Amino acid sequence: MKKRQGQKGFTLIELMIVVAVIGVLSAIAIPQYQNYVHKAELGAGLATASALKINVEDFIATNGKFPSGTGTETPADVGASGFANGTISFAASSTSGAAPTSGSIIVTFNTGIANTEKIQVSRADDGKWTCTTDSTNTKAHPKGCS
Questions:
Q1: How far apart, in whole angstroms, are the C-alpha atoms of residue 34 and residue 98?
Q2: CA distance to 13, 66, 97, 120, 134, per residue, from 123 (Å)
Q3: Where are the domains of the chain?
Q4: How far apart are CA 139 and CA 4, in angstroms?
Q5: C-alpha span between 88 and 85 (Å, rounded)
Q6: Is the pTM for the entire model greater than 0.85?
Q7: pLDDT tens-digit map of 82-122
Q8: pLDDT surpasses 80 at 5
Q9: DSSP class of residue 76?
């Protein structure tokens, strides 16, 4: 007499349950992953702009004005060698009379999830810096950036 062999493999119901569990986990994980990637991209832009604050302060101390981003005051002249995910620009605040000591360092993204979004680090005349972004995804905003 032959001995009966045990079951080998999985039943169709067991496989369908595994596929359903993977589907539910994917539905939750993918949007969260995209938020983390978006936040990382914006954080890289903020880190790049924040690193330039010292160079801008030095430029203001030397030249008495915020770099305008035009002519001989291009981002490269202030130490901005480039940004892999977009562009860096400067915008001096327009004031009547004396040269402005306030302005903004603007990082504009041209790739990734943050494509076309901007991070702006602005300096007031009193030397205080603030951060703003035009990203509509508030979960992706870097800490301290509104």
A1: 46
A2: 62, 9, 18, 10, 17
A3: 13-140
A4: 59
A5: 10
A6: no
A7: 777 888 888 888 765 567 788 888 888 888 888 888 899 99
A8: no
A9: G
